[in-house]
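Subject: for your reference before the review

Hello V.,

The reviewers asked for a structural picture of the protein, and I figured it would be easier to keep everything in one thread rather than splitting it across files. Below is the amino acid sequence we used in the manuscript, unchanged from the supplementary table.
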Amino acid sequence: MLILAFDTATDLATSALVADGVTLGERTTRPQSLLADVADLLAAAQRVPADLTAIVVGTGPGSFTGTRIGLSVARGLALSLDLPVAGVSTLDALAASAESVFPIIDARRGEVFVPGPFAVRPEDVVFPSGSICIGDGACRYRELLTQRGADVPPDDSLLHVPRASLHVSLATAFGPGDAVEPVYVREPDAEKWAR
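And here is what came back from the structure prediction:
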């Protein structure tokens, strides 16, 4: 199987090309560069889109816009190439990066996303003793978390990146692209404003 995986829910987008469990290439850029990254991954592996057999996409939680970029690209590619898609939580992918890690994603507005998933204030995060807090939320609220006993790796650690290659190992249910739903946790602002 040749699987294209990507996650655009955080400020750092990741994409990977994985063949039968072997990562052929992986990139970390910005969500807006996703299609260029996909083209580059395929070219570097000397593959074409028609070679793909499935897609795995990060479903959030994270940035509403970023999550929608990833899902839109996944659905468009799935439709045009007739490929099955699986969705994987961005929090789960972060948690799969190492032992004893606790993923925290910046939810903006003075909140973070944590496993559950929940949106909570950083000072209300409850993590297991001895945890290594990872993710862009852990970086943003490093001082607060370390004061409470957490270990937070340096900002440039790969542990803070929801690596797309990890999404592939977590993917279980493949199906139509339009069946994959985002994990927003909070209600989108547009829906609040519409009321």
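For the response letter, the relevant points are probably these. The chain has a mean pLDDT of 95. The chain has two domains: 2-90+162-186, 91-158.

Happy to draft the paragraph if you're swamped.

O.
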